[in-house]
Amino acid sequence: MEKALTSLKSKARKVKQDIFVLVEAYKHPKTPLFVKLLSIIIVAYAFSPIDLIPDFIPILGYLDDVILIPIAITFIIKLIPTDVLEECRDLVRNSPKEKKKNWIAGSIIILVWVAVLYWVVSLFI
């Protein structure tokens, strides 16, 4: 049981690191535009406080956090050219581990979700 828990923690740590690899790949000039778009969508969704499936729904609520996001990250990682991927992984490994607050990115994410919510509500009114 302890071995399975250690393996699960290791995989979770790798997914968390891969999110930052996607951020670096988005910034890289050799990354294809399509991959950049997918990367920014997944990163924004992963950091967004609003989920596709709300967390209060039993079992299904955590489906996107536990299954869908890691699958999407793995899929996008496979689309990144190998040389770019290695360069981005090195950047993430060698970057300082401090968390920086990015108010601009957070504000943009919130504004996008407010716009989507406004659009959905306006469809029903």
Features:
74% helix, single chain, 5 helices, 125 residues, mainly alpha
Describe this structure in words.
- The protein has 125 residues and is mostly helical.
- It has one domain (2-97).
- Helix content is 74%, strand content 0%.
- It has 5 helices and no strands.
- The chain is globular and about 50 Å long.
- The termini are far apart.
- InterPro entries: DUF1232 (IPR010652).
Radius of gyration (CA) equals 16 Å
What does the overall shape look like?
globular
Judged by helices, strands and strand pairing, the structural class is mainly alpha
Mean pLDDT: 83
Share of residues in strands: under 5%
Total of helices: 5
How would you characterize the largest beta sheet? none
Note poorly predicted spans.
none
Report, as a whole number of angstroms, the end-to-end distance.
52 Å
Helicity level: over 70%
Could you state the order of secondary-structure elements as H and E? HHHHH
